[in-house]
Amino acid sequence: MKIIAFTGMPLSGKTEAVQLAKERGIPAIRMGDVVWDEVRNQGLELDDKAVGAIADQMRKKHGEDIWARRTVDKIKLLHKPECVVIDGIRNVEEIEVFKKELSNDFTLIAIAASPAIRQQRALQRGRSDDSKTLEATQERDRRELRWGLDAVLASADVVVSNEGSIAAFRETIEKIFQEFLKR
């Protein structure tokens, strides 16, 4: 199985990249959905504070790779796909789990966008767990960097800038999928 994994700061464009994978028929698992499931199981509201707290608590209690292990369980329920997209890697321990449990044919793509662009997207998107203020966005960034996101970004196989138009970004991601699936 081939694995394409996306990482990046919140609101960098991972969701858009995953949407392109789905349009190609590539199964995609969003690690954030696995966290959301746990937040709901605990009877909490899906907002940035609760999602961040549960993600953090579970990492401390069950290990930095808890969300990767739960994501692997979801992927193993799929019917042996040729390729899977994983969205939302936050630390190197997660990468190790995916390579050990799923495949060494693993490509990590980091999506980069400036804080100002990401804040603008948060206000436009309006998802319940999005940060609503610049201060909240900065706190979320600090939290995710504490989890090890900086090391993950530094280890990416490919870095894609998402500072321009959505059309240009989609074109870049589409080219990456074409090249990756040819291998």
Short description, anyone?
With 183 residues, the chain is of the alpha/beta class. It has one domain: Rossmann fold, CATH 3.40.50.
**How many beta-strand elements?**
5
Widest sheet, order of strands: 2-3-1-4-5
Overall pLDDT confidence: 91
Unreliable sequence segments: none
Please tell me how large the radius of gyration is.
Answer: 16 Å
* Largest sheet descriptor: 5 strands, parallel
Describe the fold and architecture.
Helix 2 packs across helix 3 (48-62) and helix 4 packs parallel to helix 5. The radius of gyration is 16 Å and the shape is globular. With 183 residues, the protein is of the alpha/beta class. The protein has a single domain (2-182), classed as Rossmann fold. The chain contains nine helices and five strands, in the order βαβαααβαβαααβα.
Index terms:
183 residues, alpha/beta, Rossmann fold, five-stranded parallel β-sheet, 9 helices, 5 strands, 57% helix, globular
Task: Describe the secondary structure blueprint for this structure.
Elements (H helix, E strand, L loop, with lengths): L1 E7 L5 H10 L4 E3 H11 L6 H15 L3 H11 L6 E5 L4 H10 L4 E7 L2 H11 L8 H13 L2 H6 L3 E4 L4 H17 L1
Parallel strand pairs: 1-3, 1-4, 2-3, 4-5
Helix pairs in contact: 1-9, 2-3, 4-5
